[in-house]
Amino acid sequence: MTTYKLFVLPGDGIGPEIMAEAEKIAAWLTSAGIVGFEIEQGLVGGAAYDVHGTAISDADMARAEAADAVLLAAVGGPKWDGVPYEVRPEAGLLRLRKDLALFANLRPAICYPALADASSLKREIIEGLDLMIVRELTGGVYFGEPKQIIDLGNGQKRAIDTQVYDTYEIERIGRVAFELARKRRNKVASSEKRNVMKSGVLWNEVITALHARDYPDVQLEHHLADSLGMQLVRRPKQFDVIVTDNLFGDMLSDVAAMLTGSLGMLPSASLGERNAKTGARKALYEPVHGSAPDIAGKGLANPIAMIGSLGMALRYSFDLNDVADRIDRAISGVLDKGLRTADIAGAGKETISTAQMGDAILAELQSSLG
Ligand code: NAD
Ligand code: IPM
Ligand code: MN
């Protein structure tokens, strides 16, 4: 059995509750001899700030660098609203993404058949939905310089964020999208705002040229980002792979989450470039949702996005597509049995806790693999 180093960062709010469920599954996979995990735990976000005064320590960054994969739950919360901007909880997550060069964020949105009525949209709009948002994760307005607030001295301040993209950044995320599309339904929708932004003009040019040169077999469409947001709630099943920048990808993936019923359903993978010699790549796996401070500590959180993120680690870091498929089927099976955490239950319906959902998914997985 191959053994991998998994660096686990539970973070804040519901983070520790949902991470415990993913760890249960990882521990069982190891004890059953399916895949070995050496698990180390670190601190990120507010949890790290409370101990180290920073959102992630250099020592934990080094452990993240050394791991085969990082699993992160969520960061942030009102407790840290007043801390300096540089050390706010979210800065820990952004440093991990930037320093590990995790430029490609894959955010799949699948509507499980049993949940077709949990979405705020009509069943026929979302039934059978299966799309993949490919979000550029280390560039754009998240990291562009200058990024500052200047005191103009007349009682006014000026806030500046800078949207920057270089050709190579657009090209490499475009490649990820086209390659994924070839293994799916062969369609890419690229999204920017070329009607307003220079970065949108370049994005469109680079994706168009890359497509013509290397991926003419894939169907490509261009959508203005505002219009794509509208299409996502109007007719989401028209999409297969959506490729977009850091900020638009952040917003559009929260929208896509609600098509599946709840933010608590969406996993993600953040991937770096493959090492040309070893084929290995840095990777971090995390739910799309945040730390849900409103329900933290109550056993109400849905652990499916977190468990799905472990599944994505098996798929994209450890080449265990079969086990990853079984995790997805275990999730689907539990939903088919009518088991629901509160976020996907619907008003007045019976619900189970975070740990009960984790246990049910593990039991389903054990019966398929045991
Ligand atoms: P959120 O995603 O934490 O919560 C939005 C809503 O969705 C809340 O009502 C919450 O209860 C619900 N929700 C989210 N995850 C759920 C789950 N697993 N099960 C059931 N319900 C769930 O977004 P927010 O409230 O805007 O942000 C809270 C904090 O999280 C902020 O500090 C934000 O910066 C941070 N955040 C972190 C990440 C991350 O760590 N990757 C992502 C998004 C937001
Ligand atoms: C996400 C989150 C993060 C982002 C925050 C917490 C920095 O919203 O992963 O979607 O904006 O990228
Ligand atoms: Mn987000």
TrEMBL record:
| A Pfam family the protein falls into | Iso_dh
- Tell me the residue numbers annotated for binding substrate: R97, R107, R135, D226
Q: Where is this site: Important for catalysis?
A: Y142, K193
Chief subcellular site?
Answer: cytoplasm
Functional pathway: Amino-acid biosynthesis; L-leucine biosynthesis; L-leucine from 3-methyl-2-oxobutanoate: step 3/4
**Can you quote the record's cofactor note?**
Binds 1 Mg(2+) or Mn(2+) ion per subunit.
Cross-referenced InterPro entries, in alphabetical order?
Answer: IsoCit/isopropylmalate_DH_CS, IsoPropMal-DH-like_dom, Isopropylmalate_DH
Q: Does the keyword Ligase apply?
A: no
- Chain sites annotated for binding Mg(2+): D226, D250, D254
Q: Start and end of every Isopropylmalate dehydrogenase-like domain?
A: 5-361
Residues spanning the signal sequence: none
- Name its cellular compartments: Cytoplasm
As cofactor, the record names:
Mn(2+); Mg(2+)
Its Gene Ontology molecular function terms?
Answer: 3-isopropylmalate dehydrogenase activity
Q: Which residues bind NAD(+)?
A: 77-90, 290-302
Give its E.C. classification number: 1.1.1.85
Q: What keywords were assigned to this record?
A: Amino-acid biosynthesis, Branched-chain amino acid biosynthesis, Cytoplasm, Leucine biosynthesis, Magnesium, Manganese, Metal-binding, NAD, Oxidoreductase
Q: Kind of enzyme, top EC level?
A: oxidoreductase
Catalyses: (2R,3S)-3-isopropylmalate + NAD(+) = 4-methyl-2-oxopentanoate + CO2 + NADH
| Function statement | Catalyzes the oxidation of 3-carboxy-2-hydroxy-4-methylpentanoate (3-isopropylmalate) to 3-carboxy-4-methyl-2-oxopentanoate. The product decarboxylates to 4-methyl-2 oxopentanoate.
Q: Which PANTHER family has this protein been placed in? A: 3-ISOPROPYLMALATE DEHYDROGENASE
Similarity comment? Belongs to the isocitrate and isopropylmalate dehydrogenases family. LeuB type 1 subfamily.
Q: Oligomeric state and partners? A: Homodimer.
* Name recorded for this polypeptide: 3-isopropylmalate dehydrogenase
